[in-house]
Specification:
By secondary structure, the protein is an alpha+beta fold. The chain is built from 14 helices and 30 strands. A hairpin with a 4-residue loop joins strand 1 and strand 2.
Amino acid sequence: MKRIFSGIMLVASLLHFSAQELYMPRNIKMAFEKGTRDTSGAPGKNYWQNKGVYNVEVKVDAATKIVSGKETIIYTNNSPDDLDELAIRFVNNLHKPQSPRSGFVSKDFLSSGLTIKSFIVNGEKYDINSDDWSTVEKVKLKSVIQSKTKTEVKIEWEYPLSVQSGREGQIDPETFYVAYSSPRISVYDDYNGWDMLPHSDRQEFYNDFNDYSFAITVPKNYVVWATGEFLNPEAVLQPEYLKRYKASLKSDQVMHIASEQEMKSGKVTRQNKWNVWKFKANHITDFCFALSNHYVWDAASVQLKSKRASVQAGYKAGAKDFEHYVDWMRYNLDWFSKNWPGVEYPYNVMTAIQGFADMEYPMMINDSSIPDNLQDARLTADHEIAHTYFPFYMGINETRYAFMDEGWATTLEYLIGIDENGEAAAKDFYKNFRVKKWISSPAAEQDQPLITMSTQVSGAGYGNNSYVKASLSYLALKDYLGDELFKKALHHYMDNWNGKHPVPWDYFNSMNTGSGKNLNWFFQNWFYTNNYIDLKVGGASQMNDLLTVNVVNTGGFAIPFDAILSYEDGTTEKIHFSPSVWEKDQKLTDLMIPIKKKVKSVQLDGDIFMDYTPEDNSKMF
């Protein structure tokens, strides 16, 4: 027993030592030195993260389009630091004319932003002028928040819903998607302190795992869909619709809880002037809600291993794709739970709202309608629901490292697409929609290293790093390790960081430890270089029963590929090579292929790993 244990420890220490070879920024190095991160890939012995318990009362005035509310936050400072300031984040200040943004917006996007009416910390009132606030602002505290203590923060506020709807706002004059709906305390973490990066509408989000209780006041005849458990359906729904809703929680079949006509007729909600809808969600990175007085309401549920999850959709009558959404999402939750990533859907509900964003939120998605292309529409839902795992199950810093969530969602979208549409159609979509624009363009911004912070890239550089190259790296690693070992390593990473905040080096180290392999050569190749995909047949010869093919890796990425042999008798043979052929030399490899008959030609085919210059991928004899 002692010898076996020593051997395991030796392998682990070798892996951990080698993991330090990858470049690491100074702030991340400091986290490892402090013991909040560990070279095994797991959180360190000194890991901590702060938390807020939010009790929010919010009112949406459908006539004035004003959202107003008050909240009480019990904030726990688990850090080793005393805090003499609080960073308050309000993403919707993106709509203020003076806020920094990544691109052009219309006049309908702009609004006056957040007005703070009252701000109290531990009973002390603060005079806050929020006119000059952007999406994140610091408040200097009168008394420090000591390490390992709790603080009570009370805020009253209001803001207008923008006319133009994107990730949030007015979908139509009587349908609103209310995301990032209240001020929150920004993340204070072990490698940057306060997260002060402004939201620009390109990079996405980074939030603490908080507990949220929301009481949402809306006019009668408005139905509310939200993150979390619906606490009081009896108080807001009329008996027939309450009955339908409750039946949907046990039904595999899609139920039409309310039609457009029923919504407009005043039959669905209690006929109080205002109704208060209550929802609760614990240990989650965000909370959002939507409301409408005319959207169709469909629902069903799906039995997972440990629970039955509710699946709901709200949409405009006649939206042909959204009529399928509940069935599609039932399939999503079951497939993702059983296949890839093979982790049970962690929540009790998933809701889709027809809007304009193609955007994910915990337990909700806001998708545009694509009624004339159901395959595309379904893949949009696949992608956004895949985000359940990355970034929500893992508290990923999307603002700095978008490839840690978008790359995985793109990969999961592709893998479930194979099952839904067949391998040929899934590959065709992936190549045309994801890979082609990147690989066919020689522009300098296409080849920036994946490890580059997402805030430092834009345009094609941001999109291709976050989605395309990241996804290809995960699929190449899957090919290299094989499905079983890849899933084992992936689960090790997810188990390590479920409910916590991983950075890329936690991913690298977790995959090393989880697979029992030193993968740093692979991570160096894919994440730290200006590589692209471009193979070339440098030469080929056949002698007796051996074909030798010299392959030059001009682009540099360690990709899998097939060698397709065409024989003189008219037959063909396809031989697969994993990225392992590049482990020792990432620029050149010689393929030694046994043959039993005369070869007429050899061609290299990367399939979804599309080649920049495919014309030099073949050799005739």
